[in-house]
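hey can u check if this looks right to u? its 180 residues, i copy pasted from the old doc so theres a chance i mangled smth
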Amino acid sequence: MAPSMLPVVADPLSDVEHTETWPEPVRARLQRSREEFLAAARPPVLDLSTPDARALVAEVAAGRSSPSVEYRSIVSVASLPLFPDVVTVVRAMKSLLVLRGDLFFDEPIGRPGTLSLVLGTIASGAPAVRGLHLNRDIVGALRAGGLEVISVKRSTLPTRCVPLRRFAPVSYTHLRAHET
């Protein structure tokens, strides 16, 4: 399927915060991550917590526009579940980064294995996560999208909502675009 024809279940361009119904400990941890990332980021920064930033990435991913600005840092906190094709979105983010630019992310990740897939599928109908694209190998998608993973520290959050338990780390995840 061509990138411009990607189906959208959750709306990455919505100004309604998709994490609004998530458990408070998860939202608080993500807010701390975002604040830490923004403090560490080098300007200019593209923060995917805003609809305009997600719209820019969606346009570049779909091939409808070319990057007119390059960012030294991109911050993505729980934004990737809004996009159906994470590898295409990662490639779009890479094209928006300057050479040796940084991508800071804290995203829900899937566990390998059949049991995780079954539990994630069942839990995906929960109102807090309905319509989101969860239970994916985000670190693998980052590598497939052409980014070098510098460090990863997975974390588990205390919540009954299975798809929101495992996140790729807070401040220890730091990516750099490959030099080409």
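The longest helix spans residues 24-40.
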